[in-house]
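Hey, I'm writing a tutorial for new members on how sequence and structure tokens pair up, and I'd like a real worked example in the thread rather than a made-up one. If someone can provide the structure for the chain below, I'll link this post from the tutorial.
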Amino acid sequence: MKAFALRRLLEKSPIWEHRGWIGHVMFWLILLTILIITDFNQVGWPLVFFQKTVDVIFYALIIYINLNYLIPRYLSKKKFWIYVGFLILAVLILTPIKIAIQVLLFSDAPPFQNYFIENQSYIFMSMFMVGSSSTIYGIVSDWFIHQSEKMELQTQTMQSELKFLKSQINPHFLFNTLNNLYALTLKKSDDAPEIVLKLSEMMRYMLYECNEKEVPLYKEVTYMRNYLDLERLRQHKKIDINLDVTGEIGDQRIAPLLFIPFIENSFKHGLGNQINHGWVQINLDIHPDKVAFSIENSKGPTQPRLTHRKSGGIGLVNVRRRLNLIYPNQYQLQIKNEPNRYKVSLELKL
């Protein structure tokens, strides 16, 4: 227990400094009204008003002493028995004062004076129960505030981490695409202008669309097609590249740049100069509430292990981390690394 609700509100909230006290006053006035109505017929207006006013004042005293002093100083520091002792001591001090004031108020009504004197233990227990109830209120309120702060912190941490991961992903793709463009310009290829156009469309998507948590699925598919077009231009007829999309693309939304790291990984790591006629097969099966993505590519006979590459696999690490953050317990990811092929399957609940 780090702190308790009312104390935290008193210390940190400007509302208390300017308007919060109005809520406290209203609460006690409503309680006073209820107490007066319940006993009005037994005593009469003047006496019951003063008696219940005294009750409310002493209830308020024990509650504010408990919330503002005893709980923060002792209970929040796990000094439970010291806290209980001081709470009982506070009730023992306030109860005789309360009884003495009420006896004075009823100086013209001896039967009521005798009632207060004879029921001191009851008055003590009522004061103690009110104080104990405020303890429960403080603990429960502090728990809710702590949970709210914890959730807010988790949300802020997740948003910061996602921004960091996407900041890694975007330059990663841009770097590889510029390498492709550079290679074609060295060869003075006529395909270079088309690559520039595709690259500008991809950059527009990354700069203006990918800042959102989710994007329309059709835009993500369009980005994938552009990426594959770039690879077709670079690879020419050396590699067969196929993208099969089944199902209907409607208003589904998805986290941006989830599939691209798998595609990029297929070309960068799964295919090599050892393959004369390689292939990449991508399937995207779309449903109203889920998407099934799979990509399979051929591999060279002497392809090095991915885990030994210092610069490789950044995209895969990031996309797995993003899946855990954005879609916890809502995805299934399977990776098969076989001698002649590499396959990734991802089923995602939208």
